[in-house]
Design brief:
By secondary structure, the chain is of the alpha/beta class. It contains eleven helices and twelve strands. The structure holds adenosine-5'-triphosphate, iron/sulfur cluster (SF4) and magnesium ion.
């Protein structure tokens, strides 16, 4: 499976506060890779580095590398608008432009020089159909998009993101603001579009059932690092990292007769990364050793495609 986006030794600071610490990950093409982790661990920050949305925030410093195919995403002179056309984004909170439903979709093609009315009509209908909202809005295309419900607004934003035919779609908690009944509809839509257009998704969700439903691969983040990465089922069947094990142990058992003990990690997540040098989980981990406080474990492959950053799986652990 070839990768479409790669991050290498990626670190990011907001002013003096470090938010990403040495991220190394490959995102495979035509797959759904999901990121999960506690609030503030850097999920949104990482996704925004992929299409340079962090450029808009003053004081951001980035080291390391992000590649989109062969292209260095942070190369000077790169056309950022073109990059964002190829790596699109859907946010947690729907953000339609304060204009008509029609113009929300037509805005992009117009700025790229499409003037022909029939062609624009065609793009608008195709995009709205693709996002499963055409039937609901076809008779009110000239009405302001802000008058739509939250679920409709989110599907409009998906239609707008799809209109430019991105290669990669970054979705930052795209269903968490939606009503539960609409969530399933929008998630199914993502799955359908992924198959139809061979899209690559990079997805954030707090909801483990959402993640399981939709993803091919799962990355677990903690305190600015990816601590575990593997195929979606592998993470549920054999979680390796102590943080992942604690996270999954908190899911209620499928059957009321099944016994399951939640693993509780003591203390709180240190924030921000600050000057901690060892493993990000060291202050809370029941298996912590002196080495964990001194050194930071790197992601290493354990079984086919299953990587973890933890000295428990390091042959040199006895050091
Ligand atoms: N614009 C910003 N300026 C300064 N610090 C920021 C900014 N955005 C995020 N941070 C900090 O960077 C760290 C990572 O934040 P980020 O939003 O990436 O986390 P997250 O994992 O997406 O959290 P959540 O699940 O709550 O959305 C946090 O400590 C946060 O406070
Ligand atoms: S490296 Fe050490 S502190 Fe970190 S998760 Fe593994 S055992 Fe725990
Ligand atoms: Mg976030």
């Amino acid at each position: 499976m070839s990768s479409i986006v790669t991050a290498k030794d990626l670190c990011l600071w907001y002013g003096t506060a470090q938010a990403l610490n040495n991220i190394n990950i490959e995102i495979p093409e035509k797959n759904i890779t999901a990121f999960i982790g506690p609030s503030g661990c850097g999920k949104s920050t990482f996704l925004k580095t992929l299409n340079r949305m962090n450029d808009l925030i003053p004081g951001v410093k980035i080291t390391g590398e992000v590649r989109y195919g062969e292209q260095d995403v942070y190369a000077s002179g790169l056309d950022v608008n073109l990059l964002r056309k190829e790596i699109g984004m859907v946010f947690q909170k729907p953000n339609p432009f304060p204009m008509s439903i029609y113009d929300n979709i037509a805005y992009g093609p117009r700025t790229h020089g499409v003037r022909n009315k029939a062609k624009l009509d065609d793009i608008v209908e195709r995009s709205l159909r693709g996002a499963a909202i055409w039937d609901e809005v076809k008779d009110r295309l000239k009405k302001n998009a802000l008058g739509l419900s939250g679920g409709q607004q989110q599907r409009l934003c998906i239609a707008r993101a799809l209109e430019v035919m991105p290669e990669v779609l970054i979705c930052d908690e795209p269903v968490s603001a939606l009503d539960v009944s609409i969530q399933a509809q929008v998630l199914n839509l993502f799955g359908k579009l992924q198959k139809e257009f061979g899209l690559t998704y990079v997805f954030i969700s707090h909801d483990l059932s959402v993640i399981r439903h939709i993803s091919d691969r799962i990355a677990i983040m903690y305190l600015g690092q990816v601590v575990e990465l593997c195929g979606a089922e592998g993470i549920y069947d054999s979680p390796l990292h102590p943080y992942t094990q604690a996270l999954l142990s908190a899911i209620p058992p499928a059957s009321p007769f099944e016994k399951k003990k939640a693993i509780e990690l003591p203390g709180d997540i240190p924030s921000p990364i600050g000057d901690q040098v060892g493993c990000p989980l060291a202050s809370r981990c029941p298996h912590c050793t002196d080495r964990c406080r001194r050194e930071c474990p790197q992601l290493t492959e354990q079984t086919d495609g299953h990587q973890v950053a933890c000295f428990l799986y390091d042959k040199e652990r006895a050091r």
